[in-house]
Design goal:
By secondary structure, the protein is α/β, with parallel strands linked by helices. The protein has a single domain, classed as Purple Acid Phosphatase, chain A, domain 2. The protein contains 9 helices and 11 strands. A 6-stranded mixed sheet has the order 1-5-6-7-9-8, with helices on one face. β10 and β11 form a beta hairpin. The longest helix is centred in the middle third of the chain and has 17 residues. It binds fe (ii) ion. Fe (ii) ion (FE2) binds next to α3.
């Protein structure tokens, strides 16, 4: 186990997943987390994507002292790459990913790009007696998709062994789920603040983790209500695709869903 006196220990922590430029949801989540008296707030990256005016999320994160892990999107924007490295394989997913990436890239300030370039690929902390590793996709690749229906527990256990952690935290798929196994071992996808969870409701999700001794952490998934109609209006003003707006309003994913495995795809409308 990694022993480092610089690794912080928390009793309760709020962890936010992909923000996707949804500054209204981020502001609501920060307020909600503060009311829960958390010791720290973390963000697992992908600050930009589907939403409007990407610069708006940066002061919210900075002013709240939120440490951010580098997501695939952040890495692309910071380094000026041609695409978001989202990891999609279907042409329709890539079409919409290109639209949102070009918009986000053009609208992100040089100062914010510079800050993104400083994000670490992971953040390690202790939750009570447990060692936690927070990353974006997986500990080995920012754009690796760890789906609930297709990720075997033995694979998660190997990732935990290889990276010397009890608890693994990620976000890249944007769908919240958790699994615990063995003594003290758990994987948590904290969800995403940027778009709803493809469940027909407009709330978005984050996770609060609390220490519970050397057992598994207590994981609470928190739905966040925010003014999603105001966000939709702002997206219209920015001439973002109507498909992205529909997702914000209805809670159903309309794009970037060809990558979903059968079980997760069947849970949605499209
Ligand atoms: Fe991502």
């Amino acid at each position: 186990m990694i022993a480092d006196s610089t690794i912080p220990t928390f009793g309760r922590v709020a962890v936010f997943g992909g923000i996707y430029s949804n500054h209204l949801a981020l502001a609501a989540a920060i307020e909600d987390a503060r009311a829960r008296a958390v010791d720290a707030m973390l963000c697992l990256g992908d600050l930009g994507a589907f939403g409007p005016n990407p610069n708006k999320v940066f002061p919210l994160l900075r002013d709240s002292g939120i440490r951010v892990v580098m997501g695939n999107y952040d890495d692309s924007i910071a380094r000026g790459l041609d695409d978001c490295q989202c990891g999609y394989t279907d042409p329709r997913d890539n079409h919409y990913a290109r639209l949102s990436y070009r918009y986000t890239f053009a609208k992100t300030s040089p100062e914010n790009r510079e800050w993104m370039a400083s994000f670490p690929s992971d953040i390690r902390f202790r939750l009570g007696g447990l060692s936690v590793l927070a990353f974006h996709g997986s500990p080995r690749r920012a754009n690796e998709f760890l789906w609930e229906s297709t990720t075997p527990t033995h694979f998660l256990d190997k990732l935990a062994d290889d990276h010397e952690a009890d608890v693994l935290l990620g976000t890249h798929t944007g769908l919240h789920w958790s699994r615990s196994w063995g003594p003290g071992r758990a994987y948590v996808n904290v969800g995403a603040l940027g778009r709803p969870a493809n469940d027909g409701r407009p709330e978005v999700w984050y996770a609060v983790l609390s220490a519970r001794g050397r057992d598994v952490p207590d994981v609470e998934f928190v739905p966040v209500s925010y003014d999603h109609e105001a966000l939709a209006e702002e997206m219209r003003c920015e001439e973002l695709p109507e498909e992205f707006i529909e997702t914000i309003l209805t809670g159903w994913w309309t794009t970037c869903l060809e990558i979903l495995p059968g079980k997760e795809r069947a849970a949605g409308r499209f």
